[in-house]
Amino acid sequence: MAKRKENEAGSSTGHRADALRALGVLKAATADQIQRLSSPHLTYRHTTKETAAKRKEARTASHRGALNDLRRHGLSVDGGRTRGGEEVRLLTKEGLAAAGLELDRGPEEMGGLPKSAGRSGASHAMTVNETVIAMIRPQPDLDLVAGEPAEAVAAAQAWVDAPDGIGSITSYATEVALPATGTWRNPGVGCAWADIVLTAPEVGLPLLFIEADNCTEEAPIIAAKFDKYMRHFHRTVKDTDGLDKPMWRTRWSAPEPKWGDATHPPVLLVFHQVGKRPALQQMKNVADLTREHWQGQRAEGGFHIYHQKMPIVATTLELLREHGPAGPAFWRFGREDRQNLWEAIGNPRRDAALARRAEEGRRRLAQQAAERAAQRPACADCGAKFTDDRWKTSVAVDWGGGDSHPHLCDDCKRVFYALLRCFGQVFMPDVV
């Protein structure tokens, strides 16, 4: 295998590409986050180092070198430090363009230049990044962990055996404008900005918006975001076929049926217990304040219909890390129990009720068919069951005389008349 090209800071071209892709999506990130996203096997190396700090320094060395190379080439800049003291890196204008090439995204899909989030600790940006990592759950390549201590290999194997996450870094976008006025490129004042947008149709999630909160904002401020979401969802524009369509559908697609009969795309709220407001109480408060956007109408069968509503689902970063998208980490506003992500944004009770109705319909039709088969007459001569047409003819009322041999099938009836003509006992017209 050809050796990767080494750059000034000792990083490989592959690590530089990893850093560009991660920063192109996340906008601001640390070397640790980029490493966990792009090279998760390194998390299970260097386990013999004496301290956690030395292990972290060793496993992130390659990506720190890649970030230094990007800075030397004018593609990234220092963005301050997190509250934990880690360096935050941001892209320059040239870096954003280079990241677009790596991600195969046009300038309008990349968003604006990242802000100096790290100057104030980058708390929100770090929570957004950790949410993306928890959703993806990057799995290590076990071949790259071979030779490490047994406990490290076992830990890597356990993570590989755990439920999968969703997509890769290219499945996500951050800081995406959802204009109620203006355009995608130049959104109007007061539009919604989605912290994260996930598109993963391959796993049944064609579109999911994600909002991250550090439990520092008041519930009414969070709830107001959903008013902006709904304004965007209600906006229509002319598509290329000349027809009016929801504006969001001109950028993203979602096959029918939608999300368990909901009209608008789902939004996931992820709370990180950084601030003083309890995450669970925040969920309840936001649910009460956004009821008009998510509350469905009860239908026969014990389920709700969510026409013209958006599914709003909440979890905590701790639960998301523990269970992943496939685990019981998500609370759908209006429901009692936690579900996996697909059940939470869908309508499993409706699906089950419709399945029961369909099964009852199939059983009813089968029973009717069995009863009809039991009543169907059989030919007195050959014993064959009458066809539907023969059955109808045999019982039809004909004031001119009716069916002369209602106990015979069509074939036996023809044979009978043929024999009569052959022996000349009775004259009968041909029977068709």
The major beta sheet can be summarized as:
6 strands, mixed
Strand content: 5-15%
Q: What fraction, in percent, of the residue positions are helical? A: 40-55%
In angstroms, what is the radius of gyration? 33 Å
Read across the widest sheet, the strand sequence of neighbours is: 4-5-6-9-12-13
The total tally of domains equals 3
Organism: Streptomyces griseorubiginosus
Protein name: Protein involved in plasmid replication-relaxation
Pfam families: Replic_Relax
InterPro entries: Replic_Relax
Which descriptors apply to this entry?
432 residues; alpha+beta; Arc Repressor Mutant, subunit A; 6-stranded mixed beta sheet; 3-stranded antiparallel beta sheet; 16 helices; 41% helix; disordered N terminus; Replic_Relax; Protein involved in plasmid replication-relaxation
Structural write-up:
Helix 1 packs across helix 2. The protein has 3 domains: 1-162, Orthogonal Bundle (Arc Repressor Mutant, subunit A), CATH 1.10.10; 169-348, no CATH class; 377-432, no CATH class. With 432 residues, the chain is of the alpha+beta class. The protein is 41% helix and 14% strand. It has helices at 13-26, 31-38, 52-59, 61-72, 93-103, 107-110, 123-136, 150-161, 219-234, 279-289, 291-294, 317-323, 341-345, 348-375, 388-395, 410-423, and strands spanning 28-29, 76-81, 87-91, 172-178, 192-200, 205-213, 236-238, 244-246, 267-271, 297-299, 303-305, 312-316, 331-332. This is Protein involved in plasmid replication-relaxation.
